[in-house]
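Anyone up for a design puzzle?
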């Protein structure tokens, strides 16, 4: 495999410069580039240390370390045999304590990721650098500035502030920089950009970040900024003990909109949001009932919160008839509990915003949900209350309906109450009473 033209350009920059920052679109091959740089630095120096970090263990272990493992296997045998690959460390066998790369997740509460490294040859590698807290960089700034040290930052440019953003702006004189749009990589299918433009708008922040490799425009009017969503992906946080399990169901029927089902427990979105096209109401009921029956005891919902406007009302009635814990939510109601908000839907979206803003939540790597969450804007209306952009308003600016995001927001209709203790016998009794097994097989 030959490097992409942009990768060749980046390798030349890295060889010639001490500080390199690369902002890129989605899927262009930046993690492969970082893996090459790590291996090159290690095997071309007698003594070398390479601390590698990223905002989450998923990005560091599954993606960057996965690329390192892949490219280590492709080294020539006479070189590969000297490269000892471990779960979070790569050592050269002739000097394991002096020549190594190490993986350390960047956590704001533990900013030691860049601390304590000293060597005549240092390479600092930061993947998804836009999501790394400034405190991590501040701790390592002294070592990063020593003679013989190189720093390589790379990532999607999701945030308009912080160390990574500054490398392209106020601190640009100190950095060699590179922007890599999807169009510059043969690894990205040509239809990807067109699809993203059609679904989210060519002027959306999602398109700017994931396709153009540009920083988002001002996010002052975004309900949930893209950076908040991106930073929550596979975040290393502890789940809230005893939190209730809540499902949100946004019902569509035929046409372009989708029926979507989200499952959340406290500060954790349990899985990617499921969605279906073209299902009638009884099919939707069957899908939800089957999901309930298949769920483990702890994952069965205390409530299934359904958008009850129009089609959803029939789904609520049938789920209740099956004795499933469904409750209809009229998101168009104008009597929001929070006096700052106009309607119930606005309130649900604002609760979701606050959930992300607290920065102690975690979501799966669900690109479509992340894109949808960052699309709606908000404004202040004449009453002084906050109004979130409606689905119809979004469609008028040719943006896809945020069905997955609406399903997720519905999980906040019940608040974050504590979950009562329930034993296995009660669940077994409840399942028999529902008659789900016989109904599903009928």
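Challenge accepted. My sequence:
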């Amino acid at each position: 495999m030959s490097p992409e033209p942009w990768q060749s350009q980046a390798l030349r920059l890295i060889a010639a410069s001490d500080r390199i920052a690369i902002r890129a679109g989605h899927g262009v091959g930046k993690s492969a580039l970082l893996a090459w740089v790590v291996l090159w630095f290690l095997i071309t120096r007698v003594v070398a240390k390479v601390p590698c970090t990223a905002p989450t263990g998923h990005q560091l272990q599954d993606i960057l370390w996965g690329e390192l493992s892949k490219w280590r296997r492709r080294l020539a045998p006479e070189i590969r045999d000297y490269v000892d690959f471990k779960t979070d460390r790569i050592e050269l066998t002739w000097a394991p304590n002096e020549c190594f790369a190490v993986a350390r997740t960047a956590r704001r509460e533990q900013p030691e990721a860049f601390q304590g490294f000293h060597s005549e040859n240092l390479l600092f590698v930061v993947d998804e650098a836009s999501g790394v807290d400034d405190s991590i960089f501040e701790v390592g700034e002294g070592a990063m500035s020593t003679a013989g040290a190189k720093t390589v930052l790379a990532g999607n440019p999701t945030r308009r502030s912080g160390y990574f953003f500054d490398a392209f702006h106020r601190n640009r004189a100190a950095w060699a920089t590179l922007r890599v749009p999807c169009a510059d990589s043969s690894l990205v299918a040509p239809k990807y950009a067109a699809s993203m433009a059609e679904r989210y708008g060519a002027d959306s922040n999602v398109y700017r970040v994931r396709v153009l490799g540009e920083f988002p425009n001002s996010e002052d009017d975004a309900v949930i900024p893209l950076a908040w969503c991106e930073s929550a992906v596979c975040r290393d946080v502890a789940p809230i003990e005893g939190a209730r399990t809540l499902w949100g169901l946004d019902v569509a029927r035929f046409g372009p909109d989708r029926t979507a089902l989200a499952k959340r427990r406290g500060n954790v979105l349990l899985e990617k949001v499921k969605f279906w096209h073209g299902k009638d109401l009884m099919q939707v009921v069957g899908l939800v009932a089957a999901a309930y029956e298949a769920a483990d005891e702890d994952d069965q919902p205390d409530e299934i919160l359904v958008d009850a406007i129009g089609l959803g009302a029939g789904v609520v009635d049938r789920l209740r008839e099956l004795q499933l814990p469904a409750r209809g939510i009229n998101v168009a109601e104008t009597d929001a509990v929070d006096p700052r908000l106009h309607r119930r839907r606005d309130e649900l979206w604002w609760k979701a915003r606050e959930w992300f803003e607290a920065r102690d939540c975690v979501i799966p790597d669900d690109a479509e949900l992340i894109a949808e969450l960052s699309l709606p804007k908000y404004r202040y209306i004449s009453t002084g209350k906050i109004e979130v952009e409606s689905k119809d308003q979004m469609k008028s600016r040719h943006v896809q309906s945020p069905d997955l995001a609406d399903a997720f927001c519905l999980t906040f209709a019940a608040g974050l109450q504590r979950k009562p203790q329930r034993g296995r016998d009660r669940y077994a009794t409840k399942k028999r009473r529902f008659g789900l097994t016989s109904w599903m097989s009928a």
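A detail worth pointing out: The chain is about 40% helix and 15% strand.
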